[in-house]
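Appendix B, record 7
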Amino acid sequence: MNQRYDIAAYYWPAYHDEPRWRRFMPKGEGEWQTVRAAAPKFAGHQQPRVPAWGYEDESDPGVMERKIHAAASHGVNTFVFDWYWYENQPFLEEALNRGFLGAPNNDRMRFYLMWANHDATTLWDLEQSHEYRVIWPGAADRAAFDAATGRIIERYFGHSSYYLIDGKPVLSIYELGTLITGLGGLEATKDALGSFRERVRAAGFPGVHLQAILWANIPKSPAILPGGGPPADRAETQDNTIRYLGFDSLTNYQWCHYVTPRGEYRAWGEAAVAAWERWADEFSVPFFPHVSIGWDTNPRFKDLRPDIVTGGTPEAFRGFLIRAMRHVDTRGLIPPLITVNAWNEWSESSYLEPDTVWGMQYLEAVRDALAT
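Structure tokens (predicted):
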């Protein structure tokens, strides 16, 4: 296998028990509770999705050892862990802390964190009426930001498997708009990020590589230039925000963030891929391409959700992954990073892990794309 590319799969750490998770998943097995209970809502609806490995506890180092072996053996060489901070404390960390970092073979892969700073809401609780309510807000004020980033520096950045770009540990931010809101505006966010960079350097690194998830949550802002600049430079753009805050790169988390997830998978993917070249030209920092596997969140809802992508196959996914590799090559991206949604988004029907329908074929698609 020719590992010329870094294939980074998002990891949703929802499949283990922890006391705070029981507010949403009271049976003590995390979101497997939701996945198990899924049922088809129309003829031909592919639900439930059944994991070929069973409903395992991901915080068990032995369980994670098998995941790492399967991923690394098929060319998925990086996990991007969704990382949470609510009420000034971490949430759902044990898949990483006890599972991944406790696995004896974690040196076969790298990992980095995506701060999933969205609100925690009643959408996680299938037993609720689904009147939308926020349980824990995702926005963090300066004290919470400093505490969260301090934990990240202390516990993760120095690990030998942590993913670096130019020697800098990578931290991805899911909702940049929420970060700005919580910190009190662009200027306050710039100050907080500057302090974060200084603390990372004080810990012995050359800096931190900040990666933003590209979707509508990145607010537009006017260019902030000495002397103002010509009118064209004062246009409101997302790139102005990225430049002002000093972010280093962009990628996506899911195609559904910018292309409505309805209809056939290939058409959905073609619409998503069409944006890559435009973004590469519009933004002043590198855009690392992203490939999604599917979308169907019906396991999380009692009533039918019409946003469903159908007809996805490992072959079609492989084709889009090859397109992403060509984009990396054409644009000369260093590192040659491609993100994938996801390793295990079972309740969103987007996962590389083997199920009882496709077996290992999605992982084999990654391996075959790399060979191609």
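Remarks on this record: The domain at 6-371 is CATH 3.20.20.80 (TIM Barrel). Residues 224 and 244 are 7 Å apart (CA to CA).
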